[in-house]
UniProtKB/TrEMBL annotation, chains A, B:
Belongs to the PNP/UDP phosphorylase family. SUPFAM superfamilies: Purine and uridine phosphorylases (SSF53167). GO terms for molecular function: uridine phosphorylase activity. Its EC number is 2.4.2.3. The keyword Transferase applies. The gene is Upp2. Signal peptide: none annotated. Residues 78-327 form the Nucleoside phosphorylase domain. Homodimer. Keywords: Disulfide bond, Glycosyltransferase, Transferase. Catalyzes the reversible phosphorylytic cleavage of uridine to uracil and ribose-1-phosphate which can then be utilized as carbon and energy sources or in the rescue of pyrimidine bases for nucleotide synthesis. Shows broad substrate specificity and can also accept deoxyuridine and other analogous compounds. Disulfide bonds join C113-C120. This is Uridine phosphorylase. GO terms for biological process: CMP catabolic process; UMP catabolic process; UMP salvage; uridine catabolic process.
Amino acid sequence: MASILPASNRSMRPDKNTYESPGWTEIPQYRPGCPQIHRKRSVYVKNPYLEGMDEDILYHLDLGTKTHNLPAMFGDVKFVCVGGSPNRMKAFAQFMHKELRLEGDGEDIEDICAGTDRYCMFKTGPVLSVSHGMGIPSISIMLHELIKLLHHAHCCDVTIIRIGTSGGIGIAPGSVVITDTAVDSFFKPRFEQVILDNVVTRSTELDKELANDLFNCSREIPNVPTLIGHTMCTYDFYEGQGRLDGALCSFSREKKLDYLKRAYRAGVRNIEMESTVFAAMCGLCGLRAAVVCVTLLDRLESDQINLSHDVLVEYQQRPQLLISNFIKKQLGLCDQMS
Amino acid sequence: MASILPASNRSMRPDKNTYESPGWTEIPQYRPGCPQIHRKRSVYVKNPYLEGMDEDILYHLDLGTKTHNLPAMFGDVKFVCVGGSPNRMKAFAQFMHKELRLEGDGEDIEDICAGTDRYCMFKTGPVLSVSHGMGIPSISIMLHELIKLLHHAHCCDVTIIRIGTSGGIGIAPGSVVITDTAVDSFFKPRFEQVILDNVVTRSTELDKELANDLFNCSREIPNVPTLIGHTMCTYDFYEGQGRLDGALCSFSREKKLDYLKRAYRAGVRNIEMESTVFAAMCGLCGLRAAVVCVTLLDRLESDQINLSHDVLVEYQQRPQLLISNFIKKQLGLCDQMS
């Protein structure tokens, strides 16, 4: 990455010549006694070239505007859940199928992206469940194409939540961290995006109200420690996260612990590998976004993940249960709380 | 990424207190009339902590030193081929099974990493075929664990080749590029690795003799344009590669073309997303490495990948055919050239 940072365009003021205008549409609804203005929050892309394209092929999703009727397939999507593992996202979709009491057997749920092995995607009513692989570049590709998909499908009022696994710092394994701010390896709330051969800095703010709503939901789930905290996002699982068990390691155990403790003092409670770019892109495109990760270990104590299969499965279900309860509440299905 | 670069340790002089000594073992073999010194080139890790670990769990491969007999399973591996797509790496393993005329039906080849959905791995005689997902972080995780695996299995004289897809610059789609040097978005032959909260610069040199050997092999394959050139590695598929069809685009078509033409003038012939970290890590660990990618389109002409299924499959087989011929030659199976 360059050591030269041009003037930060962190606020991303829209340039009328470059971007579409913000996607707010005011729809007045007057009812006797209840004058209200109802706003729909569109998913909007920030690319003036898209409008002029005859066809848009979402290559890594095996979908396209000519080959698929995207509004018919996805127009009712209100919640998108993303996570690294294809198996876990399929399991989540099957879980949501039951929780939303949809018709049919959720066991044979179809992978919408079966024509490619890059990502998988499942739809259960208004909930889309998508895998994104590991790391910032992998989730970035998926998000570009997902955001275009939601735009082409004319989706509005979409909430997107990353459900993941992570390493905790100073908290019990199995804790769930709801991210208030994603930070980089230097504990800064920023994402540095390389555009051609320039580096621009983007904000990694997440939706505070959403994070609080999720935290309030978590209070109804017993025996799962849940907290709001900063999440640090790295480009590497080993050296970049201070692990002593990689193929390469050029620092001491003392240096490792010093770094992790400094991260803790800066407010970091867990470490993963997708949150900064996730926050940056969703923020730019009008998607209300959250990150909810379970921690598999306390990095102050160990580096290796050595959980039994059953414990690992149970831990990975914790964010799914929280998000399921949140979604049901949003849909007014409170009597079906698990 | 930080804008502060500490003193480059590009040469990575081994520090005797920090690293294992270089993995060269001299084994004298004296035969009448043929006095020779035979050298075995070990795969070596650069982490003093590994030796003291009671157990090493290769978490994302679902393998481990206590649960698996790694020397028995992998000790004879001489060639490792890696690529992003699980399906493509399985197809390559099945192809190698036929090309090496191994016993049994290669169709039901077993995924060694079936217990995880992060990566897949297949073994056909001395050839290991492994998927790595998309992007630098994803391949980095796999390489750390693969290199440790080869080390634990006491493998020696291992050649590793990434076979991939890419975007070409100024060359016909379907061309195969053998990388001489991997460069970053700024056309520099370097990989910037974040270690804790410092940035170190690593060399991205690949094995020149191996690249030339592969190029010579390619001459025997008709109708596949093949060349040696620089490969640019980016962190992003859209904005970082100058695409005008992402969810976000803040530059003009003119800026895009200027950037790609400057890349061309700097020697870049194709763009992908793993080669710099691949070259850096393999170089540090004693693995003779190459990158061989087919180009799916000419980025000076277009951004979207719009190939028919059959053409896409045939293009993706081109690097596989070249590597298969190379491996057979190395194993002395020249009469079985396809």
